[in-house]
Amino acid sequence: MHAAELIERKRNGEELSAAEVRAFIAGYVRGDVPDYQAAAFLMAVWFRGLTPAETFALTAAMVASGETVDLAARLGRRVVDKHSTGGVGDKITIAVGPVVAACGVPFGKMSGRGLGHTGGTLDKLESIPGFRVELTTDELVEQVREVGIAVAGQTADLVPADKKLYALRDVTATIDQVSLIAASIMSKKIAAGASAVVLDVKVGEGAFMRTLADARELAREMHALGDQAGMEVVCVLTDMDQPLGRAVGNALEVREAWETVSGRGPGDFRELVVDAAAQLLALSDLGVDEEEGRLRAERVLEDGSALAAYDRWVRAQGGDPDPGRLPLAPVVRLVPAPVTGYVRRLGAREVAVAAMELGAGREVAGEPIDHAVGVVCLRKRGEKATAGEPLAEIHARDEAAAEAAEVALLAAYEIGDEPERRPLVLDVIR
Ligand code: URA
């Protein structure tokens, strides 16, 4: 295999064979293909795209780069999984896991860390004192069997090609390519052995997919990859023009997820948790439809069993489930509304960048983060704001950081005369 020749052919818009794609990926993971050639290949793909056959070959090559786990066979149950394409304030896994587990469906999931403006579930969970995210595959399976739920970091042996490629894409402006995203997500789902998966495809200015048309294309490609792997896939396209829920920042998001499993929490977030749980229950081996799934999800949120599942889960991974033990930032500043009116826009990306600059996220993999800091959006799109009354709350390490975040947040808000409302769920593609 001549890497330069494959890059040239892809650059010229030719289709590569499955064997060529496989050889390129295997060479990259072994270290025979250097980063600069892989980067050139990714950029050629960004401009030329991949055919369905190439996307399938890339996904299969990525799965084959490491170990696979057959969770369903090891648990003797149908295993359902969920994945989000990445958003702002997205703490769905932390709330939906306990809901699904409380309904009697095993929930064993491998999650990722945040990079760039999107947050990661592992970072959020690590704000819980004592919580251990590094479980071996055996520990994960054992915990799901005994407690019904486990969430851990992806082991180094699972899809190592994605780990390497994702880091390279992140620094070469090649993340936002539909086929590369589809292959990245589906290779991990296939390798982790899910029987069915609910994919939350985020759409809008805070997401990788800015338009509904791009999000539909991504959903279509992930469906095709799922079909070929014998995995049932449901894609829920959801709005990411504004943050999900109110909290953005690790410990703040865990607190919001805890409030939600306690039967409270912001309306939009709870709605999406119930929606995702209903889809997951309908795909599980419980034999219920989505409507019954919704009723069961609502019931466990109201009767305390989702909260009990959350407590069991957090304790099983060494954490303290008491939200009073979450770290607090020393400075809390309220941002007053400059005028009276209705929030017409709350830019998800700007809120995310403000939270990141407070220390809640990282720009480079491996950087430490501050779990306590972040933003709580007290007013969101469609809600009334009154001049002088708080629009948002900033949790910062010091006054200077709070000051900078206030300027950034005010630029994220647009207040007008008319309320602007848009649905959260934009489409469901089965
Ligand atoms: N999430 C992933 O796991 N991979 C991508 O490429 C984008 C979002």
Summarize it:
With 430 residues, the chain is of the alpha/beta class. It contains 17 helices and 13 strands. 47% of the residues lie in helices and 16% in strands.
Question: If you had to describe this structure to a student in words, what would you say it looks like?
Answer:
The structure is a single chain. The protein is α/β, with parallel strands linked by helices. Helices cover 47% and strands 16% of the residues. It is built from 17 helices and 13 strands. The chain has a 4-stranded mixed β-sheet with strand order 1-4-5-13, with helices on both faces. Helix 11 (212-229) links the parallel strand 4 (196-203) and strand 5. The two termini are 39 Å apart. The mean pLDDT is 93. The site of uracil (URA) has 8 residues, from helix 10.
Q: How does the SSE layout of this entry go?
A:
Blueprint: H1 3-11, H2 18-30, H3 35-48, H4 52-63, H5 71-75, E1 80-84, H6 92-102, E2 107-111, H7 121-125, H8 137-147, E3 149-153, H9 160-170, H10 178-191, E4 196-203, H11 212-229, E5 232-239, E6 247-248, H12 250-261, H13 267-283, H14 290-302, H15 305-316, E7 331-336, E8 341-346, H16 348-360, E9 374-377, E10 384-385, E11 390-396, H17 399-412, E12 413-416, E13 425-429
Uracil binds next to helix 10.
Evaluate the radius of gyration: 21 Å
The end-to-end distance, rounded to whole angstroms, is 39 Å
Number of helices: 17
Low-confidence stretches: none
Beta-strand percentage? 15-25%
What composes the largest sheet? Answer: 4 strands, mixed
Instruction: Tell how many strands the DSSP assignment holds.
Output: 13
Note the quaternary state here.
Answer: single chain
Mean pLDDT metric: 93
Strand order of the largest sheet: 1-4-5-13
Helix and strand string, N-terminal first? Answer: HHHHHEHEHHEHHEHEEHHHHEEHEEEHEE
Can you give the helix content as a percent range?
40-55%
